[in-house]
Amino acid sequence: MAHGPGIREPECVVEIRVLTPDDWATWRRLRRAALTEAPAAFGARLADWSGDGDRPQRWRDRLAIPDSRNVVALLDGDPVGMASAVPTSEDGVVELISMWVDPVGRGRGVADALLGDLEQWAGSSGARVLRLSVAENNAPAEGLYQRHGFAYTGEFGGLMADGLHREVIMEKRIT
Ligand SMILES: CC(C)(COP(=O)(O)OP(=O)(O)OC[C@H]1O[C@@H](n2cnc3c(N)ncnc32)[C@H](O)[C@@H]1OP(=O)(O)O)[C@@H](O)C(=O)NCCC(=O)NCCS
Q: How far apart, in whole angstroms, are the C-alpha atoms of residue 165 and residue 36?
């Protein structure tokens, strides 16, 4: 059955899976796909994770950040999305990074499921604030985060890889 824009397919099932360092190959595949498909959305570049930068131990270390949570979303069993929550230098503040949904899975609630899982985990770990950086020209991501209750802090992060756009910082207070 065809669906119009903005209408979620009711039959799709999103499952969240928590990764450990042993799952590095799954994370690597998704992350390299993300940096290839959406280079303007991330501070990291594919080149940073290619060649000498593309080592199993480096991917393992990425998934072994203490007090972090790294998740993938499965849509009907296939990994189509990823995101992480990592600690910051500020007590009680958790940062969300590496959010990506494969184009085949967009508009179907995958990012909602990723954000929901990470927010619940952060809250139950005692965090008070979720923080993230988003490129100032990334309207779909900004819309997603606003819909989930994130607000602009007025702070800016670094310059994106395109050398033109900056990151804007958004936060959400959690209870
Ligand atoms: C941003 C992103 C994670 C959203 O994932 P998603 O699972 O499609 O999320 P949603 O279904 O909630 O859709 C988010 C927005 O994208 C729009 N969208 C829906 N289907 C879409 C599609 N096929 N293609 C592009 N955007 C689409 C939605 O309309 C929605 O906008 P709204 O909140 O203003 O209504 C995804 O588009 C993505 O991975 N983009 C590239 C990487 C990126 O920007 N990551 C965030 C870095 S901060």
A: 18
Instruction: Report the nearest-CA residue for atom 13 of ligand 1.
Output: 107
Nearest atom (ligand 1) to Cα of 145 = 33
CATH class, domain 14-173, is alpha beta
**CA 110 to ligand 1 centroid distance, Å:** 9
C-alpha 141 – ligand 1 centre gap (Å): 6
Q: Within 44-126, where are the H helices?
A: 56-62, 110-124
The domain limits of the chain are 14-173
Q: Which two tokens stand for residue 54?
A: 């593309």
The model scores a pTM over 0.85: yes
Query: Which pLDDT tens digit goes with each residue over 56-88?
Result: 999 999 999 999 999 999 998 999 999 999 999
Residues 87-139: pLDDT tens digits?
Answer: 999 999 999 999 999 999 999 999 999 999 999 999 999 999 999 999 999 99
